[in-house]
Amino acid sequence: MLMTEEWVGIDMSKKDKRFDDICHICGMPITKAQIAICTDTYAVNFVEKREGDISLTVCIECYEKIKVHYTGGMKRAMKRHKEAMKQ
Length: 87
Hints:
The structure is a single chain. It is built from three helices and four strands; from the N terminus they run αββββαα. Helix content is about 35%, strand content about 30%. The chain is an alpha+beta fold. The strands form two sheets. The chain has a two-stranded antiparallel ribbon with strand order 1-2. A two-stranded antiparallel ribbon has the order 3-4. The longest helix is centred in the last third of the chain and has 14 residues, at about 75-85.
């Protein structure tokens, strides 16, 4: 089963011609100029226990947030986790 439009709940048949895709992180419609990452790949969905092909598109703003989360690697991630557990 393909995990593309059906899997993420997007009906691209009703697509607004001003936009080229939807950011799969924030859900905003985006133009080609606003696309930071676009991938077609194979994925395993551990939550829904299925697998298949998936297309993901990420806007520039969400990509910048993703980069912040990966900066510092696991050490920084553990620090963020520790800080979150204090709240």
